[in-house]
């Protein structure tokens, strides 16, 4: 069993053969390296000293400096791997065992999101239904007549002026334009308000929700570094 340490050992050139090798952190066993990677134990102490490889393909193959840089830039795979290494360091377990603990943290991070994201999902469905409904309301003669009878009660245009779908749209636009125009202007005002909030450094509700979730996750797992936990939570979507 390998010791779950992170600091890469400085192996002098020529310490293992062939002479060119990539120094990697000590957090994976020999069997965990993918095919095409040759793990070298130069001094026979049971710790992987260097790995001969042509290309890094997985986040766990990155050294700590590269992984941290990618995590700061918001790469989700790097953020996840950094949290796994934090679990390995604090619990003194190997990578596979740390993944089990990570799955528990991942589940806790998404707890309650079904309720919190319900308004967003309702908004998505509502916007889609209303947006699609405007097409028959504007251009379908039978739908337009039905809507006019129950909700508008304006005079129906002459049959000669309703022979094509464009003529129907010209007739229905008289009552469709006010609500569509007003709603568009209202959304424009909301967008302007949000832009001013951003300039003042105030975050909208979604950002507040994500920040609060990260703080809650940090309190639930105080053993691990709060910054790493919160960065993982904040970099994860709501669903």
What does this protein look like?
It contains nine helices and two strands, in the order ββααααααααα. The protein is elongated, with a radius of gyration of 29 Å. Helices cover 58% and strands 3% of the residues. It is mostly helical. The protein has a two-stranded antiparallel sheet with strand order 1-2.
In short:
The chain has 239 residues and is mostly helical.
N to C succession of SSEs: EEHHHHHHHHH
Low-confidence stretches: 1-36
The largest β sheet comes out as: 2 strands, antiparallel
Q: List the total number of helices.
A: 9
Physical arrangement of strands within the biggest beta sheet: 1-2
Number of strands: 2
Instruction: Supply Rg.
Output: 29 Å
- Return the structural class: mainly alpha
Query: Residue-averaged pLDDT, rounded?
Result: 80
Characteristics:
single chain; 239 residues; mainly alpha; two-stranded antiparallel sheet; 2 strands; elongated; disordered N terminus
Layout of helices and strands:
Blueprint: E1 38-40, E2 50-52, H1 64-72, H2 76-91, H3 95-109, H4 113-116, H5 118-139, H6 141-152, H7 165-199, H8 205-220, H9 226-234
Antiparallel strand pairs: 1-2
Helix pairs in contact: 1-2, 2-3, 2-9, 5-6, 8-9
